[in-house]
Amino acid sequence: MNDRYQTLTSLPAVLRGGDYNPDQWLDRPDILEQDIRLMHEAGVNTATLGVFSWTAYERADGEYDFAWLKERMDALYAAGICTELATPSGAKPNWLAKANPEIRRVQVDGRRDKQGRRHNHCYSSPVYRRKVAQLLERLCDAVGDHPGLIAWHLSNELGGACHCPLCAERFRTWLRRRYHNDIDEVNKAWWTGFWSHIYTDFDQIDPPFDNGEQSVNGLLLDWRRFTTWNAADYLDTEIEVLRRRTPNIPLTTNFMSYYPGFDYHVLAQKLDFVSWDAYPQWGEPGHDDTDVAIRTAFEHALIRGCKPGRPFLLMECTPSLVNWHAYNKLKRPGVNRLAGLQAVACGADGVQYFQWRAGRGGVEQFHGAVVGHDGRSDHRVFRDVTALNEDLGRLAGVCGSYTQAGAALLFDWDSRWALEDAWGFQKQDKKLRECAVRLYAGLNRHGVDVEVLGPEAGWETYPLVVLPMLYLTKPGFAQRLDAYVRSGGVAVATYMLGYVGPTTLAHLGGFPGEGLKDLFGVTAREIDTLYPQDQNAAIWGDGANTPIVDYCELLELADDTEVLARYADDFYEGTPAVTRRAVGRGAAYYIGARLDAVGDERVLCRALRDAGLPDELLPDGIEYHCRRNGTERWHFYLNTAEKPRRVRLPAGVEALTGRPVGGEEELSALGAAVVREGR
Ligand code: GAL
User: Fold this and answer.
1) Is 316 a catalytic site residue?
2) What pTM was computed for the model?
3) How many A from CA of 69 to the centre of ligand 1?
């Protein structure tokens, strides 16, 4: 991995720009000229070019044209606007698909796609790889040394899986390597005696088609791992050219928040920095925007944690609305600013939009854009974006700083996949995301920022670690957690901890498996899944009563495990629901049932005290994040509520206004304060 980039790119400023498609407007020089003028007016300093420009570069096989690109990059650069250049592999040309039908993806139903749409090529296809590599060589010839080029944006929103014969064969080869060419090792790992699904040759293994093998959990999990591996292997084709030809230009690609398809911890290893596209559903009836905000903050942390220690880029968000929600509501005034500042608060060094200018045709013609079809800069949306860009201009000093987190939250794609594919519990939606977001939110309410990390990462440096529904655990993890707690760490785990091992086989000897039951001093003997209309409650030591929904584990305790709450109802009334065990210099908490925020708060408050972290609550609706570099701290207070809130600010300079602050201040509804401390 290339560690040369302290900041994301060579630009010493928060990146402000978005997806820009001048290739769709080449017959309108007046519009191209207007774009530059308007970008300047909007305070834009970067443009993402070429995301889907393959046919604009190569209209027919081997007939390349990069003149328009070079001209546009020159014009942008002359106006002080740098380019993030995408590789155009996210959509394939018609001529290429016609000549090479095998590049079209085979979907999970076994049918090969017709040509059309995007994000649907076969990752294994040698033809596709070769054609992309050839194009990238020529792209590097044309603009690889352009002074305006500050980053490569690899493809676009990589995703999905191909089930073609070539991918199936590569899957089998991958399995042979993983299982030492021993089919019985596979049978054991996957428990294939179940329903008589024993394999006697690797050749019998197919991808899990939706009308094929869906009942072997280990196969499902390995297919997902393979799919990530294969996409990463495909990316290597692009990376090989770009690293060789432009070794000083950093590489990124845009992730998709809580996307289930790939293990982003694996893909991130290929990149210099991570980026993502955030499209939260602000203003959805029945959902409080404070909840939407904290869920987005969690997602920022999830993506940031894919590349710990380094800022990320918000590659895309909409300045106003999208076109693909069921109801495409406008962002209300103030929301875009708050969301943009939140991204920076959470570690982004750039806020970019999809899209700069609305196209005239195609399905995204009515998607929000900084410049709409009217082409006017006195538009509300254009003004909102310009105002936020002015704010971001005042935050240049945050670039390169990193989130100062007080706690870690463990999130593992393998565990998520194994849990989501498991038949049982709540079959359709196990609610892992809700569980993780609630614990994240509970800590943030105390002003504790949270780093979301994979179990393999270095979470031991945090005084508190939370483990929401960490269903699958790998060898060695329990020992690490045990050593962490003994030496003073505080662990808070929830129900469904350590049910299965790395190939989805259930741990024997009681849950949580692998020594975790000794650490927490609990054994989950059974788990009760509640119907939506069912409710239980937790009765706490002081007599308080908080609701329980979804899951109740029936716990057996070790002698030295303290009970914090017991079940109020059902045949397990009076048995333990929430526990704490003092271990060495630390403590291990176990939440055996799905509590509400008040119940979680009772556990977190005590755990925070154990960990020496602040246990005082911030006012309702105030989100807090902190970034730090060697000399300064940047405290972000975001008011996600629709009412003004009073908040106590640390002493320093409020960076958006330049005012000295310290002490209590009022933040307007959707307002924010950024306090710079130290220097
Ligand atoms: C993203 C995608 C963009 C655009 C946008 C619309 O997922 O990367 O190309 O389609 O959605 O919201």
Assistant:
1) yes
2) 0.97
3) 21
